Amino acid sequence: xxxxxxxxxxxxxxxxxxxxxxxxxxxxxxxxxxxxxxxxxxxxxxxxxxxxxxxxxxxxxxxxxxxxxxxxxxxxxxxxxxxxxxxxxxxxxxxxxxxxxxxxxxxxxxxxxxxxxxxx
Length: 120
Known about the structure:
Elements: H1 29-42, H2 45-56, E1 62-63, H3 67-71, H4 75-87, E2 91-96, E3 99-104, H5 106-117
Antiparallel strand pairs: 1-3, 2-3
């Protein structure tokens, strides 16, 4: 899958760059900023629903064209939320013709979870 993302750095984010375990060591400034970006992205009910939809779809991916109806929001609003999630490295975006398709980056979400609960 090719990641189309020319406006931000999510395709460059590694799992390791996100989310060093909070209880094991003091985060440096860059680690704290990256972790805060991810948590901020997840701190919105619509974005949490979008992550949930992407995570539970049978095919493992979802077309942007289906999402406005699923979350009862306008296309521009959904597009904004998807952009935030892609920027945080939580979703991958692939352009197929007219439509964008999104897939959850499970390893990135797992890194966030591990950082919050891993005591070392």
